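Protocol step 4 of 6: structure prediction from sequence.
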Amino acid sequence: MMNRRTLLSRGAAVLTGALSVGSFPRSPSHAAETFEVTHTDEEWRRVLTPDQHKVLRKHGTERAGSSPLDRESRMGTFACAGCDLPVYRSADKFDSGTGWPSFTRPIEGAVGTSEDRGWLGTRTEVHCRRCGSHLGHVFNDGPKPTGLRYCMNGVAMTFSPAEAS
């Protein structure tokens, strides 16, 4: 017999699972843009891991807390995993407690944004300005100085530590 608690917990589990594997495909409003780095879907599948392809090219979301980049605290630069364009600096990273790497601002000119209309409503999607890869979303609940929280998928980025001097 299914009671209210069972129904709610099963519904939450299904929704969480569906969101974590990108089961609610979205059509980004930047899809018509032209980017400097382009590949066919087959070529993207050859240069990206399956998890990277799901997030960067299919606008999926990695499971919260699954990326080591969320805990990365060294000085350095975070780059797009699709084209290696530097997109964030560690000086702008903060622990949002969400389970995803979060930043107060991107490197100037490194990212673009677009409206993301999905099952959960309308959000502001963040993509790499050079290859168009989906990186994450930006929200208006971040700390000073910007008040923004760029909530990125760790699998969408690589990290290069700063060289010791």
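Step 5 (inspection) to follow. The radius of gyration is 17 Å.
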